[in-house]
Amino acid sequence: MARNIDPLVVGRVIGDVVDMFVPSVSMHVYYGAKHVTNGCDIKPSMAIAPPRVTITGHPANLYTLVMTDPDAPSPSEPTMREWVQWIVTDIPGCTNVAQGNGTLEYVSPRPIIGIHRYILVLFQQKVALGELVAPPMTRSHFNTRAFAEEFNLGMPVATVYFNAHKEPLRRNR
Q1: Which residues does 161 contact at the CB level (< 8 Å), separation at least 6?
Q2: How far is 2 from 154, CA to CA, in rounded Å?
Q3: Is 34 helix (H, G, I), strand (E, B) or coil?
């Protein structure tokens, strides 16, 4: 009898970026018409603009979204783990990320070597964060767990990840 294994475990998201958690909010991520599901492939050229992210949850609750690349600069030697791509705080429940406070501007995936995982982690806030969260001094060596602890966010309430790799150069002949 085959067992279902959580794709976040298979993709090493649980372990490398977050600890085991029980999802309690639905998060839907789209790049254009492409719905992001755990482990799917997204071309960097499709991800130049920030994704459309909608969440459920209670309208009175606020949420924080963190997007990182734990495979920077190379999956075999992730010496810059984690590279933070985007942070949005104070997102009201039952809305989309555009309603939140863009703490750190979105940077599109730009994998140089190998297949990179891009992780979107959603946390429920205990209080409004407002100006408490400043952009990190550098995007490299970010730590999602430490960030959650610093701002008393607790465990994630939703997570999704996708894979991306460098696209070949287009040659005009």
Answers
A1: 8, 11, 13, 38, 39, 117, 118, 119, 120
A2: 32
A3: strand
Per residue in 114-173, pLDDT (tens digit) is 999 999 999 999 999 988 999 999 999 999 999 999 999 999 999 999 999 998 876 665
**Short-list 73, 31, 72, CA closest to 160:** 31
| DSSP class of 36 | P
Q: Which residues of 49-77 are buried (b: 16+ CB within 10 A; e: fewer)?
A: ebbebbbebeeebbbbbbbbbbbbbebee
pTM of this prediction?
Answer: 0.94
Q: How far apart are the first and last CA of the chain?
A: 53
DSSP 97: G
Which runs of E-coded beta strand occur in the chain? 27-31, 34-35, 40-41, 52-55, 62-69, 83-92, 101-104, 115-124, 156-165
130: Cα within 13 Å, side-chain hemisphere: 3
Residue 50: is the preceding peptide bond cis (ω within 30°)?
A: no
Give the C-alpha separation, 120 to 139, whole Å.
Answer: 15
Number of residues written out for the chain: 173
Over the range 122-136, which residues count as b (16 or more CB within 10 Å of their CB) and which as e?
bbbbeeebeeebeee
